[in-house]
Design a protein that fits this description.
Belongs to the TGF-beta family. With about 100 residues, the protein is of the alpha+beta class. It has helices at about 30-35, 55-60, 65-70, and strands spanning about 25, 30, 40, 45, 50, 95, 100. It has a single domain (about 25-100), classed as Cystine-knot cytokines (Cystine Knot Cytokines, subunit B, Ribbon). Helices cover about 15% and strands about 20% of the residues. The longest helix is centred in the middle third of the chain and has 9 residues, at about 65-70.
């Protein structure tokens, strides 16, 4: 029996047709070929994605430091909240000085 509580994934995935105003992950594909960056061998494109949207007031109350900031300056910003929770590096294969291949 596993008594551990699991963390809920509250992230929302949206697209260009979404009407969601809350913080959401939107698709973004970076296409090196479309940029004309021919020195990049691989990958030719990758999914970068980005976050955009508003955070609910109650979400911000979860953190003591943002609660204090809101109490001190109720009309001010409570700080960033619609940000990625995970980021990953990408491996790239590219030409350097038009002659050597780097990884």
């Amino acid at each position: 029996e596993n008594n551990k509580r699991s963390r809920r994934n509250l992230g929302l995935d949206c697209d260009e047709h979404s009407t969601e105003s809350r913080c959401c992950r939107y698709p973004l594909t970076v296409d090196f070929e479309a940029f004309g960056w021919d020195w990049i061998i691989a990958p030719k494109r990758y999914k970068a994605n980005y976050c955009s949207g508003q955070c609910e007031y109650m979400f911000m109350q979860k953190y003591p430091h943002t609660h204090l900031v809101q109490q001190a300056n109720p009309r001010g910003s409570a700080g960033p909240c619609c940000t990625p929770t995970k980021m990953s590096p990408i491996n790239m294969l590219y030409f350097k000085d038009n002659q050597t291949i780097h990884y």
